[in-house]
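>> received
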Amino acid sequence: MLRPLLAVLLVSSAFAAEEAVPTHLKVKATFTRPDKDGKPEVYAEPSVITVDGKQTTIRVGSADEGVVFTVTPKVNKDGTLTLEAVAESREAAPEPVAPPPASGASVAPARAKSNLPFFHGVLTKDKLFSIEDSTGKRQWVPLGRRIDGWTLKSYDEKREALTLSRLGQSVELVLHKAVILDAPAPQVAISRSNTTITVKPGQKTLLGGAGGRTIALEAEILDVSK
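>> returned
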């Protein structure tokens, strides 16, 4: 009597385990933007695997300039899919231009002239460096650019050291962290949009974006039984 009962329990457990397997889905996002001729071009096409009702995140670009796309797919009884999407776009905002001083107002003097520029900051992913020249003007420049006669040659990320050269002379500038504490960090403009759509599996839906950029979203149900 014990063996038949045990067999029934094992079959019931196996059936329950099979019933508990969640529905797997593949979510794909296609990111487009205008090219130099104004025509749309695909610059990213990531996809992720998730399960029914679980939130998943797709990231494109960097923390300063890019898109963080969060999607929660849900399978409906009629076989359609409901996608709850939140898109957060980040773009570097232009630095504000200080208004000219009023007549008679005192103007802060520029820093004392030096043979070397100041190295204020770095955007490693974009290979841009915040450099202040002898007049106090600060700008983001790439390697190869010349500042005060010095050419930016290379950057050691581990030591945070920028190598400059001029007339056969080579020097290193270490990241000027003391100045960074007083200087504002690059401003980032953040925009967020919430969208909920119901689509058929495999159907592509176009979502609008800023600056001519678009996101096409689609999802399909995966057969994980094979």
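>> Confidence is low (pLDDT under 50) at residues 104-113, 178-183.
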